[in-house]
Amino acid sequence: MLSPHAAAQECTEINHTFASGANWQLCANVNSEHGLSLTDLHYFAPGDSSRQVLEALHPAQIIMMHHGKSNVDMLLGKPGLHKPVALNNKTCEGTLHTISDTHTVCSIVRPLPLLAKYSSRRALQGEAIDVFAVSEHESLIWRSNVRLSEDGRIIPSISLSGLRPSITTSTDGSATLQTSWRMAFALNGDGSNDRVEQFDFPLNRNAGNRRAMEIKAINTESFASVQRDDFRGWRVLDEDGDGYYLDPQNSGYQMVSSTLNWAKFDLAITAYNACEQLADNNQADACDNNLDAFISGESLEGRAPVLWYSQSRIFRPRTEDNPVMSSLHTSFELLPFEWTASSPFEALE
Amino acid sequence: MLKQLSLLSCLMLCSWFNLAQAQNVALECQSGELITQEFENGAQWNICWESRIRENLILSDIYYTPPEGEPSLVLSEARLSQLHVAYDDSDVTYNDITQFGLGGGYLVDLTTEDCPIGELLISQTRPAACKWLATGEDNFRMRNRASSAHSLNLFSVSQVGAYAYIISWLFYDDGVIEPQIGASGALQRSSAVLTLPFGRVLQGDADTLWLSHTHNYYWHLDFDLGESATDDVVAESRFEFDENGIRQQQSTLLTTEAALQIDPQSATAWHILDNPAAGESINRSRGYIIEPTRYGHRLVREETEPYTEFDFFVTVANDCERFASQNARFNPDCKNHVLEYVDDESLVGQDLVVWHRVSFHHVPRSEDQRHMHTHWDGFLIEPTNIHVSSPALNGLPNQAPQLDAISTQSHRRGDSIDWHTHASDADNDQLAFSATGLPNGILLSSDGTFSGTATEYGDFTVVVSVSDGIDVSERTFDWNITPGKRSSGALGYSWVPLVLLLVSRRRGRDC
Ligand SMILES: [Cu+2]
Predict the structure, then answer these.
(1) Does residue B170 lie in a domain region?
(2) B155 vs A114: CB contact, 8 Å cut-off?
(3) Which of A185, A288, B178, B463 could serve as B170's disulfide partner, Cβ 3.0–4.6 Å?
(4) pTM: predicted TM-score of the whole model, two decimal places
């Protein structure tokens, strides 16, 4: 069997330069275990140089917990559990990248109106490039998309559609969805000197409702949760302080599971291990099965950090989902944070 | 014989769904200007808009017409009701709408550069808003078909201090409404005390600490679904685990005014329903749902702003209750904030208003300097059971699968059967086969393989169906099984299949 890592090498290069001169460069592929697979993501801000942000970015699991049943379906796992869906000119309005008959990736440039606006100064109209692949499992079809914006933001998303799951006597058809992504950082090309910090902003009710910011270094593999009242975010930075910020602003529901411990957490941080590809149902030989086992107290010192971020929604069937499900969507944002000394568009004004 | 049955038409005829009653769509606005937008799939929006000195964009008489449906009122008014900004040092708090305002002198005149692919809209001689058609995320996706969400986007810009707020509304071709607000411009507050733990020093400016803060956006939505403004109800939905670890929905109809919190573990959502029948499940009622998807932060300061403890409010419509906070500044005889509006009034038979809050905690970064990128916040108001079927499919009709002809089959009882039917589908959808009228002992798998051994003999009329999940094609063929080999000594039981055959032939398609 071809290992997923060997397959990752035959990727298609996507290199897009925007009108401002900003550029994204990456390699895209479809992987038999997790579908869309992006590697070696480099961002070039106008006036800067092209610098690597991530070594790898891909979906790490999609869970459907059908209500009325206690088991959960995992859509990602060993080859064959889900199938890549070949894209064509009806399903890819942009550029079709063919890796093989069934392995296709689509890239499409989209406008980002009002990227910035200040008073009577003309608005900055930006663009982003979307890179996506489509997979199916039984009647479900989903698009895994990564939006790379002209100002350096990385926005992974999953849109779940396909035929609506059947309604039986024991269930109304509703389901809990959880999507997870794996982000292997390599800021400025070398992940081993990257560090992870947790920003906390605890509300001090006894001191006039002030929120003093606390920065905690995350030195060992661990899980973390969103703090809705006290506020929290995570920063990955290299030795020069250049970095990206994961703000869990788009976190809505909290996954609840009596069987999957890892799925209850919004974030997991692990040390880079090439055989840890999926948050659960990880099929690689000689490698653990899920995040609960990956997180073994290992030190992150001198190791490239990998972030695993999860989001949950509820599928509630309506006539609008009949016969085809209106897409159920999750997305989040990785924000350049001290990646450049000012807005990447400062030089353009 | 080739016959195609459409599950869609079946649903339209058989479902409990009642078509919206035709209503008169406002062709003239009571206040403001009319915007009408029809989409390729046949969906249409009619909206009146105006820019007012306090809230800036005010939308009213918002009608939605589903594809092939009738226009129906959704919201009689929709607007922002406060823009509350609280700094992490707690020294300064802004209530922008009541302290400054988003319209009048704070409204930014737009140019064609702000609205390059749209149309500038004029309010009292000023280019106050831009209207354009946006393409968004996937609406639905099948193997060979997909559609993006198309929407009418209306936005206006207000400059308040250093911040430029983009007040934006999206109306989608599948009936979804997305209120949005973008925060751009420049950072507002800083301190020269660099050691304060309430902000960050940014590159290129070593003497300034820029302060972290939270933007709290409050929307005011006066839903008036359908013909009557006083027959709507609001229900809260939660999903809880029972003792067997099974997740079940619980719903509560709100009968008195309420201030509510999101519980992320219970997947709280709110349904606004149009006159549901007694005992009808909220999942089957016509209306709209608000499912909170941006809930990473929520600002709570109970002592100073007690209303911040809640995320969603349902009140009886009252002209006196205009702003989510600092209301008494402009309405001195009225209550002051949205939590005070929740005062046990009955919601039954009343015109209801919902208030929803979304928070954004802003930690300054060097990239915010000068061209602060627009940070978008908002939520979705999604239709539930407003359409008879998937609205996005209206532009992209399904092509039914085609079953190959099947010739008359002849076998002997006891023969081992293994042959395939074949079908094609122009949309390359996943196909599932099924059959009725088969001789006992023979099965058809969902991939179209007949297998098994007939345990009876006779002439059978078999109906094979293939479905792509949307449409079904059928073919009928004759299958003659001769006595041939007899299985394990049973005698004369060919009566039984004859009875079964009659039963199976009478079975119609029911929904
Ligand atoms: Cu801000």
Answers:
(1) yes
(2) yes
(3) B178
(4) 0.90
